[in-house]
Known about the structure:
The chain has 887 residues and is mainly β. Strands 3, 5, 10, 11, 12, 14, 15 and 18 form an 8-stranded antiparallel sheet that branches.
Amino acid sequence: MYREGTNAGQATKYLKRFISLFRSGFDNIVMQNIFTIPINYNCMMKKRYAIYLVLCYASIIKASAQNTSLRFDGIDDKVSIPHDDAFNIGSGFTIEAWINANNWKSNVWAGSIVTKDGSGPDSGFAFRCGNNGSLSFVMSNQGSWFEVASAPVMDAKVWIHVAVVVSSGNISLLVNGNSVASGSFTGANLTNQLDLTIGESSGFPGRVFDGQIDEVRIWSVARSLQEIRDHYTLELVGDEEHLEAYYLMNEGAGTTLTNRAINSSVGNGTLGGFNNPWQPGFELPTNDVGVVSIASPDQINVFERPSTIKMTIKNFGFNDVSNVPLSYRINGMEAVDEVANVTLAPGESYTHTFSGLVNFTGSDEYVVHLTTGLDDDKNELNDELSVAYEKPAGSANRRIIAFDRMQHNFGLAGQQQFTTTIFPNDLSGYSKILLHIKVECPDGGCDPWDQPGKISAFSDNREVEIARFITPFGIGICGPWTVDVTDFKTLLQGETELRSYIQVWGASGWLLTAEFEFVESTDAPVFQKLSTLWSDDYVVYGDPSISHDLPEQSVLIDPTTSNAHIRLTVTGHGQANTDNAAEFSDKTHQLFVNNAVETSHRLWKPDCISNPCSPQNGTWTFARAGWCPGQGVEPFIKDISGSITPGGTVLVDYELEDYTNLLNTGYNGGSHTEPHYRIWGYLIEESSERFEDYSNLLASNLYLDADTTNNVVTIGALTLTLQNNGTTPVTNPTVKYYVNNEMISEETIDATIEAGGTIAYDFQTSAKYTGGKRHEIIAVLSSDADQNAEDDAISLVFGANLFKMSERAEVLVYPNPSPDGMVRIEGLKRNESYKVKVYDTSGRLVGLWDLTGKEKFEINNRSGLYELMTIIGSGQVRSTYRLFNKD
């Protein structure tokens, strides 16, 4: 394809240059006097990706240009570029670069890519990375830092394109053309006269990048997501509008980095500290498929019913890939291998459902290890993923531990941590979600100060704070604090990315534990819709030169909404100013709805002295603006159902009480802390109907017809009950069942199940059951567009003489089935307490009863099919039964 002596990297850069110029509309393309190629348009139209274009031409490419990058040693290497006003962030700003990290710095702030950050006062910005592959952008927001950071989404030792886009109060981070984090801010960036630097912080020496950087681009406009995707693999011409700095890094020698942006005043860069800087530049990863996540099972249902393994993969390369080998292994046992018989375009994802079932109901801990095995994969670092499942003990409700004694500090661990948690896909059966938060001392002692912390969830790469807390004032262990997070039910479903953050400035820090508790409901489900009103961790309060007026928000109310409320989490911080604001200042703010005062909000917590986390050091007993040291922050809730119109628009505003800080308006004095508020607010709509279409078919009951008269067992039909708890009809679902892991039958139901409808289906093929032998029957259904795989399978276990559903039975259930609708339940252990739960065919809890010792308990007047679950005093689910009461 190219003449001997031209390497693949050089050819790639020529191709990128070629495509860039082709898009400019030339019929004959002259590349810097290197070569000329007549275009074959027919061939062009047939090819989808840039890397294929070379196949269209018989011309011989004669290469003479370099394809190089700069290698930063992570110690003292940097490129300095003189200050230019083009580097001041306005209404739009974009930075792009290719990076190849040799090692990630421990903290996300330590690996500088492109920076112009300074202190005293805090000013400028920094685009950086670290923390096992997190990407971060921080900017001075009215003299204080505002940061957006991603989860660890990048691999080391591979080329990755990174970008940050600042656009009218919003910041977005992108990796390989995909959004990975975003946030909003108010106020203007505080500029400085420092040099812009590549590879090291401008104002904080020692924050250096370890690895290669190539093709840095800086724009004085917010590039769109599509523009970045269309051009990040292509070489630019240099005369693109709003392109201020373009460092191609193809010099290959010397100490000068040339700015190739033709219409810019920005100067060249000067290399400093380098020993052997020039290395081969980035190359496109042609074949790269990686494991993104495990989509099923979730952390709760996995221990309660059989599940399918679902893994999501993504094509990270630049070629189409087909027939990708996949496998999973449970607890190190023999791997299950399958092939994803699909073709994935570059950037495309696919979720594969393995054909077999897994049953985790017999143990408390499992580790699922997922792998891909594509031939000629150019990046093996993303080919594997392990997910641990652990059943929590001690509660009848379902619990998921998201952060388990996770270290936070200003040292190696960092102030923030990320985790991906797999919640149930459908939470309509839960009345509450409670978040229990606790902090403990790590080895070496605790951080001595009361500091704000929070737990956040991410929706469409946008952070949503769901709980806030304050660490204790010099005490070793505190909590758990319980925060009701039911309002965020729409976010805590399926695979969810969570972030924990503690603003701690010492190397000791805290160990954080955060556990979600799901409380089952016996009532009809309530569905929710969440709208963010305000999301600001630093609202400056009292500076005459900075407005603290929050923007009024307009929200379109859904036509199905029946109730709505405002949830505000507001805390005041800063002291030694006028009125000791905002931490020790008693202020009353106003909540407006539709331009009228809805209520007053006195932001004051006078009961810190009664804090159960006591005694503490310092001023822990003093009342504060909405918080106490060593407590969770209580949100302010206001029902506005009477002020909304379904289908109409509601206006919401939150006005802070007038206040001027006369003591220090510059906030540069060492003894003064700037008054500010942390304000996060949401509008939550509620309805008895779902706000969005939902497709789901539920396996709600499995019943094997049996007669145990006179101790003779007669086996009849196996009946699977299917319920459509979605909003759309389901037609012709497929069902199959297994006996002792052997598939007996796979059948298609010739029927349409309407939304809310239920059918009972008798399998047409019967299995042979051996008398006296334990049998486990698993039935599973599948339907097109089903959005919840967790409720597709159901099981029952029985012996020949007693229809009990577990060999570890702690209770005796008889008669079952019952001829008169009365079932007796008898505890088998003395001095033991039991909790009995009964569910109807929809999986909804219809009753809870307590059972003590060996006493008998009767369920009567409940004709139909029910599920019964017993829970021993320790809280661990021990056995599950199916009750088949007959009319």
